[in-house]
Amino acid sequence: MRYLFGLIGYPALHSQSPWIHHQFLKQQNKQGLYRVWETAPNELENTLNAMKTLQVDGFNVTVPYKEKMLEYVDRVDPYAAKVGAINTVLFQNGEWIGYNTDGKGFVRSLQESYPDVNLEGLKVLIVGAGGAARGIYTAFLEKGVQRVDIANRTTSRADSLLTINDYGISSTATSLQQAEEALSQYDVIVQTTSVGMSPKDAQQIMKLTNVKQGAIVADIVYKPLETSFLQDAKHCGGRPLHGDGMLVYQAALSYEIWTDTTIQADKVLQNFKQKQKGDSIC
């Protein structure tokens, strides 16, 4: 069997997902292709129709379509329905089925990087309120953290995420300025927006002067790997969590959905880190 996988988003040509999924295919000695469909909003329906015609086995969804994709799938996995965003679509028995692996991929990255951390005792701040934030917010709620707040430029958008919370966990929406002033309250801070992504590397969504010493500060941006946000975090006494871990682990979960197999993602992440540094990969 030869698989056809892909990614739809805008912009999307910069994505490292093709390299990662080709590593997965190689690891399992499977034949397949993962390609990028960079699709402007006015081209979305045409691209999706073309993907249906091609009978793409599965595809990932990135900005700005993670929430929009709910309108186009035939069925939604209960977890993705709760999140309210889709980043993975499976073609099965003539239907498109929507899933979300973002949050679970992020939490796995956190646990692999900092195995000493007890998730149940954490106070978490999520910066941003888009599709990725929804997935990460839901994953933290499911892990039973002590508290998880959401900061966004538009507080009303952050408020909309709170409807996901039916776990009885303390959670509030706040402005970026308020969150910046209260950073010392949080054990984990997760930056989920595209601010600081190459080529606008110098941009930073908030200052980390008030960060708690030893707090884990994460950025889901992976290009550059060491964003201005993470550089500031280290300077202020935080412990950085880079975006490449979430990228690889959420991709692994997608691949496992598409192929009904289990992948060894840790090796691929190690190779990806070498690739980002410009090292040779054997």
CATH superfamily of the largest domain: NAD(P)-binding Rossmann-like Domain
Order of strands, main sheet, comes to 2-1-3-5-6-4
Q: Briefly, what CATH class of the largest domain?
A: Alpha Beta
Average per-residue pLDDT, rounded, comes to 95
- How many beta-strand segments? 12
**Low-confidence stretches at least 5 residues in length (pLDDT < 50)?**
none
What is the CATH fold-level name of the largest domain? Rossmann fold
Cα-based radius of gyration, to the nearest Å: 18 Å
Strand content: 15-25%
The tally of domains stands at 2
Q: Structural class of the secondary elements? A: alpha/beta
The SSE order reads: EHEHEEHEEHEHEHEHEEHEHH
> What form results from the Cα inertia axes?
globular
Question: What is the CATH-assigned architecture of the largest domain?
Answer: 3-Layer(aba) Sandwich
Question: How many H/I helices?
Answer: 10
Question: What's the N-to-C terminus distance?
Answer: 26 Å
* Helix fraction by DSSP (H/I, runs of at least 4): 25-40%
Largest sheet, in brief, is: 6 strands, mixed
Structural descriptors:
Rossmann fold, 20% strand, six-stranded parallel beta sheet, six-stranded mixed beta sheet, 282 residues, alpha/beta
